Records
---
Amino acid sequence: MNSPGRPAAGDAYITLHGRSTWALVNAYHAAVRERGLRPERVVIVTEEPYAEAASTAEAAVGMVSEGYGLSPEIQVEVLPEADFVRAGQTIRSLAGDFIRQGYDVAIDITSGRKVTVAGALIALSVAGLDIRHIYYLAMKTTDDIAKPYMMIPHQVQRIHDLIEDAAALSA
């Protein structure tokens, strides 16, 4: 929710990159196609061992965006490997900056490694930031899924918004 007097700047999307570039790109594609995400800013947060693959993810996010008439500013943030505290600090800082700039913030945890995901979610929770969406692309199988989103049968995959799902549980 935007604060009074704060103009809406649009969507900002923070995605956590780990071992699977396909998971990151497909989750982004699902969020854009199925959930109506229209990011103006995208940040790919990765760890040092995966930094080289993050450039491929960056290019792929750009291509998917272009296919939907979007041209977000895309950046990559590289973290030290398995640094829970640094992951939390970085993602809390990015989300806080985006919120102060008027963006609605979405985070995708699909491809993130556990330490990065845990660090991010704990830091965001402790900070009490107004994160609008936490996306996770669930797959019913891991067989033959290293390919573009549109080539994977729809019944095998489902994009979840964990914030919406949690709200439905408490209703």
Note: The chain has one domain: 10-170.
---
Amino acid sequence: MARRRMLQAFQAAKEIGNYADVPVMPVDVDPQITLSRNTEKQPFFLAFAEDTVIALMSGSATVRLRESNVNSWSMIAGDHVYVPAGTPHALEPNEESVLIRYIGNEPAYRAAVFACETCSGELHRLEWKQDLEVEATAIYAEVARRFNTDSAARACGTCGTTAAEISLERLGWPSEVAA
């Protein structure tokens, strides 16, 4: 994947979309910085093997946390949120928001945690080892496709609610696996 030069982050962000998490630093820089421009609510919580820091560069958003003593954190441009390793978190933009995320540069564990909108219980968890050379949206789209096609994963064992399918089109993620 071609890395973006981040001389002008806002200009670079115009070319990317929801949760693109595009690496912007040279390959050997650790921690790495990723960039995304988000307009839609993140459809699942992400958990990283390593600590991460989210910095909001424009807009406003809320970071939702699971398995934490803090449930949410409201952010405006210039705010940073530290997320401890293993803590599932999701971004909910209040408006178009540009963010950068500091993460480890080496391939590492990631997880998508799906939660029930009614009772907040965990519905399903998918885990993988992510290399920053693979486009994040391709991985996230595949995770969403698997969730969408697994009716058992979308059914809440606690309250009986069935989660709606994730709209890949709304998020601007690829609807099919690249050939």
Note: The helical segments are 9-13, 136-149, 151-154, 168-171.
---
Amino acid sequence: MNAPALLPTNELVLYDALDHIMRTARASSTQTRRLRWIASRAHVALQGLPYVASEHDQPKMVSEAVLQAKNHQLRLANARLRNALAQVAGGATGYSDRDTELAQIAQAALDAEQEARA
């Protein structure tokens, strides 16, 4: 990459900014993988060395495929729950008093889900 030529004052400002980012990331009370990566990346830049990704502990990246898989699993679980509620709403226990109560609870849950979708 062709970076623009920096004036000496800009170099000092950028150096100070990177140093501050590095110190802040290291001083965090909760050390996460991402914060350690930020500190490491800033440290290398301050030394004037090129960034080599394999030399740094990379932060965890969630891919689109992982998100889609999780979304699919949630949809399946939701469908199973809806089926169970529908069965209960139809009276599946064999005890008439309990079936009526469960049917009312299940129907209320199904109605609430329909309202949430609307």
Note: The chain has two domains: 8-55, 64-117.
---
Amino acid sequence: MAFITLDSVKLKENYDWLNDLFVKKNIKWTVVSKLLCGNKKFLEQLILLGVKSLCDSRVSNLRMIKTLAPGIETIYIKPPPKSYIDKVVMYADISMNTEYKTIKWLSEEAKKQNKLHKIIIMIEMGELREGVMRDDFMEFYKKVFELPNIEVVGIGTNFTCLSGVLPNEDKLIQLSLYRQLVEARFQKKIPLVSGGASVTIPLIFNDSLPSGINHFRVGETLFLGTDVYNGEDMESLNTDVFCLYAEIIELIEKPMVPTGELGTNLEGDHIEFDSDNSGKTSYRAIIDLGLLDVDESHIKPKDKRIEFVGASSDMLVVDLGENNQDYKIGDLLSFKLDYVGALRLLGSKYIDKKVINS
């Protein structure tokens, strides 16, 4: 079975570096744990770091977090569906919202459970994913403030996850001003301005983060060490907290060009082959990993001499050239992951998960 490892030492180094950064800037931050897909072993590693706040997009994952550490603050990080309102109130201390009707349901359920449910209201700042339209924002707040068992603790926004809109100083100043407008009009204190995410971190370094932004939601930079804004690695962080390993289950010298009439492959694609390779052979390895687990475009062999040939549902083929590396059946190939690759693999029940250096 292919497996993915989490290096607890490298994770701690990344966490400590980010925590020091945010503490120095007087910024509260929440770790986005949805990448871990509720894996108990991996969540335990986060808890051991001393994480105070975790946010996730799955109720089952929040339930696992509360089971492991009831005192950790939990945030449901997308607009709650009606069918999960009771569980959101039960397992999330805070939820992010954009619909008045949904907040009304949360209010009613919080009353049933004798709880005060906290919410962050998301505002649309151009990314066109979740968010109340800016023209409707003040009236939206007015209605929400009248609901019982609901406490508005923040205003937030999202960047880059759908349309790729980047955060900038102007947009984040606008977000901060909406907080000021709400507080002035309704005489209500709004503690959090949640305008920060992994993609916003570089704004701290070039002094373009407005002082009003006091809450970050960070996952990718913590786990993968990426500078999301510039699409590159962060020099101060480990980029290999996660590593994928897959076993070679076949290794045979084969022709580089298939023979026979060609149709479409599993994904419906017509594959073209370089005619210059006709008559040539190379060593090809099949590994126990496939499209069911991950797309090859989201993983990268650590051995740069290895090239991908293609993938089917449960097998991935790589070209080893003349196999000067002397790979054999049963050997493990290792791969670096990007965010989507890690997300797919961690969500696959067919991929084993292991903690190393714990």
Note: The radius of gyration is 24 Å.
